[in-house]
Design brief:
It holds the Pfam family TPR_19. Residues 1-30 are annotated as: Disordered. This is FMN reductase. The chain has helices at residues 3-11, 32-44, 48-61, 66-78, 82-95, 100-112, 116-128. By secondary structure, the chain is an all-alpha fold. It is elongated, with a radius of gyration of 20 Å. The mean pLDDT is 89.
């Protein structure tokens, strides 16, 4: 029996209120993969501010990762931080012009900011790439 099985065996019958708390590492101690996992969880639980705070250093350290940049832009968008969302998305559509969703999200960001005319070309590009807007 390994150590984990021994520990579980000792907990059998123990009410969950008496179990020792699980200590999670501080955000400053996380490696990039764990930081991304935690950011994804925060995004999925609608904690967009926390998700963006976790993703910002990842995007800065890995500017070529479109998936992380898009999740950061979505986090900004959902937390109504439209300026930062627009900045990330403009970099994305310049760097990856074939990313239809980046075009769509940039259009929606500009629309939400009251600049629908400025967002119209990005919306047309996204539609031309097959996204239903």
């Amino acid at each position: 029996m390994n150590d984990f099985e021994e520990m579980l065996k000792g907990l059998t019958g123990t009410p969950s209120s008496q179990l020792p708390p699980v200590a999670l590492p501080e955000e400053s101690e996380l490696d990039d993969h764990a930081r991304y996992d935690r950011a994804t969880f925060a995004f999925e639980t609608k904690d967009y501010g926390r998700a963006s705070a976790l993703l910002e250093p990842l995007v800065e350290a890995n500017p070529g990762n479109a998936e992380v940049a898009l999740l950061l832009a979505r986090s900004y968008y959902h937390s109504a931080r439209l300026g930062p969302a627009e900045a990330v998305l403009r970099v994305m559509v310049a760097r990856w012009p074939g990313d239809a969703y980046a075009h769509l999200l940039l259009a929606r960001t500009l629309q939400r900011d009251g600049r629908a005319e400025e967002g119209a070309p990005y919306l047309k590009i996204a539609e031309a790439m097959g996204l239903d807007a």
